[in-house]
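Internal tracking record. Fields below are filled automatically when a chain is submitted to the structure queue. Please do not edit lines marked as system-generated. If the sequence contains nonstandard residues, flag them in the REMARKS field before resubmitting.
Queue: standard
Priority: normal
Entity type: single polypeptide chain
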Amino acid sequence: MNDHVTVSTFQMFEMFPTQEHARVYLESRLWPNGPQCPVCGLGERVTVRKGGYYRCNQCQEDFTVRTGTIFERSHIPLHKWVYAMYLVVTARKGISSLQLSKEISVTQKSAWFMLHRLREACGGNFKKLRGIIEIDETYVGGKERNKHERDKLRAGRGPVGKTPVVGMRERGKGGRTLAFVAADVDLPTVHTAIYQHVEQGSTIHTDDAPVYDGIGGLFFNHASVNHTMKEYSRDGVTTNSVESVFAVLKRGIIGTFHHISRKHTGRYVDEFAFRLNEGNCAVRTMERLDSFIRGAARKRLTYKALTA
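SYSTEM-GENERATED OUTPUT FOLLOWS
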């Protein structure tokens, strides 16, 4: 496997020229100790069959490396899936379904479904943040003045009609990012999210929004900057890092996707957070790809569920 920090598109094609090469690679990553049945989880009584198929003699199930993953029941060859993962993890602002369809010669509808499956792999399985954590919120969506008359809510300005997103980012080199769509940005919602995702004893930096009132004390240390007074940094207290996360997210939405629906915003947010966590250019490309593949296991998204 390639040992370079970065892997070019040409090198990717050389490494995975066929579906068989991709199948062997995915099996080595998803089954490091040999084939495992996705139904019973055992690998002791597995029989190898032709064409990448396996039979579990424990539960009498046939399976492949696709079974129980985001690739299940997809007719798209596995080497196209691997290349799509490579594009998602290396494109700082994401890749559109139209562009992906051209890159791997599938329909835009198939590319759109693929990308949402890949975003499904980006979410979940997240450890609590620790240390100094910057927390902020933003709103994603089009401006009221730019909407068609029939789509305007006429309910005021600001976040009206937009989707609230809460972001948390660890301070320092290698700091992790967590971002998610919130039902609302109010004190109970934000406090619950902090208790759920931040280790006790950590230090929290926020702006002066009232939703953070009372978060310091017994479980967390809390310091804030007063944005209403044009204060953005004071003695190391700032939210600039987490705000840069939102800047990348919004530039990606505007420049790459142009428009995303409220229903699917959570998956787009997961994709950008995953790329910030695993997409560091100092990390070898194949290691970043391995992280993506690990996230693909035990997850499945059907077209019916996606479009319901």
